[in-house]
């Protein structure tokens, strides 16, 4: 015979695990020092500017 499982307890365990996962993500995202946040923002801005400066755009002055 199979093992008897209390579905209510399984649901609660699953909810707790999901909350713990979300809490871990929030700790990683919000639990950083000001220097770390600044470094990440500058790195992101630098990468964005690099891509923007190498983008090929069509000239808008040409008439069809």
Automatic annotation (TrEMBL):
InterPro entries: DUF4169. Residues 15-48 have a biased composition (Basic and acidic residues). Residues 1-64 are annotated as: Disordered. Pfam families: DUF4169. It comes from the Bacteria. This is DUF4169 family protein. It comes from Mesorhizobium caraganae.
